[in-house]
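Page 47, continued from p. 46.
Same chain as before, 753 aa.
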Amino acid sequence: SRLFSFSRMLRSCASLCACLLLLEVVTAYPEISGSCYGMITDSHHPNNAKTLDGGFKIVLSPITSNGTYKSATLSINSTGYGNFKGFLFKSYDLLNGGGLGEFSSLPPYTAVLDSCPGKAAVTHYSEEAYFNKDKPLRFTIQWPSNKELGFQAFLVESTNTWYELRSSTNGDYLPDDITKPPREGPFTVRLNQSKWVVGPLVFYGPILLIVIGAILSHLTNGPGKFGGFMHRKLFSKELGLPEWYHSESLTSPGFWVRLATMDVAQSFIEMTWGEMLTYLLLMASQIASLIVWIVMLSDEQSKYFHYKDHVHPYDAVVARAFGRLLQYNLALTLFLPTRHSLWPSLIGISFERLIKYHRIVSRVTFVVMIIHLILMSAQYGFLQMFTVTDTLWGFGNLFGMLAGIGMLLIVLFALEPVRRSAYDLFMAVHLLAFPVLVLAVLHATDTVVHLIPPLALFVFDFLLRMYQWMINVKVQEVKVYDEDVVNLKIVCPAVAERLWNKGARAIGSFVSIACSDISANPSALHPFSVSGFLRERSKEQEMSQMADGTLEGMDLGSKPVGIQVHIKSMGPKTWTQRLLEAAKNKGSDIRVRLEGPYGHMSLKLAEFQHVLMIAGGIGITPMMPVLEMALSPERRKSELPALRSLRLIWIVQSSAHLLWFQELLEHAFMQTQMMSTDFQLKLHLYVTQKSQVLVKIPFTLGRPQLSELIRIAAQESMGDKAALLCGPTGLTREASARASENGFSVHVETFRL
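Result:
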């Protein structure tokens, strides 16, 4: 098993390196030099010229020859009163289209363009260049005697008006496949200009440092180690925010402040050292990459163009730099949310925790997209953003605008109020990501290069998920508690075996559940924590074995055949309420489909001597597998070898909620009454409201003094200690602050994705 895990990690590392190498090599800037292929103003503005040639023509003086070379004087004359401010003149070998010809006797403010093949091109470099009937453009050209030349000229009268002329030494026209610039393929690399790979290297360099740091943190994730330190909070003491900030009411200013700021304040307060370094490196990659692209594009602009009214591929330098940054971030966004990716085995961050980083990078991507749009609109006008034009790098701005509108919809429907109240709608709108990617590629074709690695991961992930969908599962038993919680006992040997074999690493796992009885949508999958195992014998049968009253009498060490989930209804018309009603009506005949298991806790519990679990309401579900494992001596010694004490604090509204795990809790209380030298178990159950439901499980009526309980737990825990928290935000926020102050390594379970 360990050899298999090591092999998976090696494959993951190789895959990551291959992805990064691909990004570094093939995302080099494509060959779209407007100085060689023409003004390319049609990629930005419509040409308002009334005629193709504007009344101009190329005139060739009588050709002279010395046997080796031919020479002639070229001039561009006007048949009327037209004029042009700037120009690009190119000469070709009429046979193969290669650049050919040597220019001389150039007029003021003109120069040979070194960037073009064969240096067979001339352009202006000053706004003082101005040519008309009285001041024609004239220069001399020389070429081999055995060759015939073709000429192509672009004359720019204004930003929206330009002309194209063609001619040759023998009267033949250049074929279109020579005069029209070739569309560059997405994998084209400027091998002779390696500087273009600097952009992606600068962006992905800090990202690679993040991955390396996460790998080291994963390998050393234990108390007193590097990973343990990276999981510690940045602030050991709570930096409290006012109560109004945390209000969930739609009429509260706090709700809208959190929405507008994306809850940055609370995220900063709860930040760990590892998260802080990750965010700093992420911002460093953004800023450094942006600066590098601005410098490189400015260098191209200064080399090839000097006239302020000349529209070209290197104009709007800052806007285009943000466009490049947008491509990188779009790819990075897609790398993160796959369920079966290389990240869990490589860096130890499971799917549900990567979602947080997916949201952060998505927000950065959206902001970069908005800036790119604003700057391009400022340069060319907002209406030009809706044009469709075949250019060297894409098919027009309209596709970029449509991609941006799709991204806006995704972001709006991913906001917390929508995501929480209409999860299916949120997931459905997220499917717009696929047409958005297609539109982004149509807007800038080399975007596909950036998308290949993450899309490959998506395909791999989708195939594995399809395989999981084909595995049959059966609901063995359904229990409904207090009209708002349903317990599903699902026979699924494959899922149970995976969790069992993972041992302590499976604690905190969840499965995604779809129910065809309430939704025909195959993507309507909802995540729920695994709250326990299902064995061939019922809990009552296991309890009956306890004739001697010892812990060993309960057979919690036998391999399971399925899992249990406890699902709480989130209110009327929600998916969970429909599931609850279907469970009551159909019982064990309810049809479900599983994906997973996914996820694990951020702490390695096997290395901690003392564990404190604090849960509120349904937040108890990820804690119960820990309690179940601790109550089995064999499993505890093999999976939690360092564990010396386990303390559970569970707060519920009604005593009826204790019935969710009645058998396990009753057995756990029996264990607390037994003296043991190697393991201590303590349970603190609190019921905040009086209830008519009678239970045999001991509890305390009222709310706990949480700070005092955590302080006592810390005093009684000499050694490495961890705190596992799950429940309402207010509870986990307070418990996290108090636990951190008392020296606990804290894990807060992701209650809702």
